[in-house]
Amino acid sequence: MPTRNASATWEGGLQGGKGSFQGESGVISGAYSFGSRFGDQGGTNPEELLAAAEAACFSMALSVGLENNGTTATRVHTDAACTVAKVGEGFKITTMHLRVRATVPGLDDATFQTIAEGTKKGCPVSQALAGVDITMEATLES
User: Fold this and answer.
1) DSSP single-letter state for residue 10
2) How confident is the model over 3-23, as pLDDT tens digits?
């Protein structure tokens, strides 16, 4: 299996500094700052990247779980919200909330919920975030 790489550079102090990151593919890159991470300033931040990674991984993993059930999804859409909060003297990623909507012909909601719950625990990014409270709302659409 491949190893994926990215890099980041931070220049200056915490509140007045600035950072940038880039993935090895060149497809993802961005600038971030104290304001874009902990405030409302424009730019990206590590939590947005984690939310994107979780949403992408979960959607793909749920698709596999549904296919393995014999009920291939026509569409899986996941919104992920990653929260960072002050905890003690530092900051911690405290929650990742998933809002999942899937269109799966011929599948009942109870089975869908079971597969979605298993995916929440088994998706590789979810496993990497084992110390984070991951919550989910999963909706089976017709």
Assistant:
1) E
2) 999 999 999 999 999 999 999
All residues at 6 or more sequence positions from 24 whose CB lies less than 8 Å from its CB, including other chains = 4, 5, 6
Helices (H) and strands (E) in the chain, counts: 4, 6
Where do we find the tokens 């911690």?
92
3-state secondary structure (DSSP) of residue 27: coil
Phi, psi of 132 (to 5 degrees): -105, 140
100: β partners: 78, 138
d(C-alpha 82, C-alpha 52), whole Å: 9
Predicted TM-score of the model (pTM): 0.93
